[in-house]
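fyi for ur records
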Amino acid sequence: MKRLLIFLAIVLCVACSSKSEPDLGYRAPKFRNVQATQLHHLNDGLMMRMTNHFMMCDSVVIFPAKNADNNNVFQLLSANAGRLITSFAYLGRSAEELSSYMLMSVDAKRGLLFAMDNSNRHITIDLNRVLNNEKQYVVASGRYKGDFPTSRVIHWRNGQLLQMGGYPTDRFFVTDEKCDTLLRYNVLPSLTATIDQDEMLHKRYFVYNSHYAVRPDGRKIANVTTNGMLLEILDVKDKGISHAEIRYFYEPKLENSNMGKPDCVFGASHICATDDYIYVLYYDTTIEELSNAKPKIGVFDWRGNEKRCYELNDMVATFAISDDEKRAYCWAYDSEGEEYFGYFDLK
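which gave:
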């Protein structure tokens, strides 16, 4: 009887332990196809400021970054040659200018760039007019009347605006031109029992550590995180936004909501999406070992399955995928810390 009681006590302890810290299955991604990849320089003479990301539209690259040689907001580069074609847009208060261009989205099929500032003023720029050196390249402007929470990423199509990373309210929401909210989604994936129990820490983790991409048709969202790494995939339908898939790769170990502990895996720093794939720029090393690490770009399908991985020779700050998915363009730093615009071919 005594042994039976001891056995039951052990079972109870194990059961309680597994309940308080559920096994979410954090497992590093495994790729059958891993390629050591050399980046090729296209232009190492550019001096950009704040090159956090850039966008592709047909055969041109749009950098939302000031060049040391001009005061324009955007720099337009040739994807094939890497040369600077032109620059456009200014900071300002006129009807065709914005006070900031932090929120933007490119509709590559229509050749349009949509941008919005923190006061909900927005403009639409015809990129073909920019390429033709037409002065009147702003084709629409206005201001949303409602108040939006602070968003980190937007995706604009046909008058509807999908906003992601909202704080302090909705994580994801879709509004129309009248600023009426059509769809919203606020579910937070589990992380660990400790983080899940702290409601504010749980929410802020996704606010500060998320990187978002939207499939070109606007029907799927991918979110990948820093300080640990998970890949969350959502469906966007006419009647709502819903969970589709989630992959747990590296467990978050946090000092606070936007800082990982030294032994926490750094995780993702950028993400891009195409019709068929999700491309994630990430580091699989801990924060304390990050200075000697080289990044990887992992390719996943829209069910979160690993397809292939590119191990890069230089540090990459941000990247974009060509429309035909044959090439990845990168803003990178060589071994001496010199920045350059380069590429590698996708195989």
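Residues 1-21 have pLDDT under 50 and may be disordered. thats all i got for now
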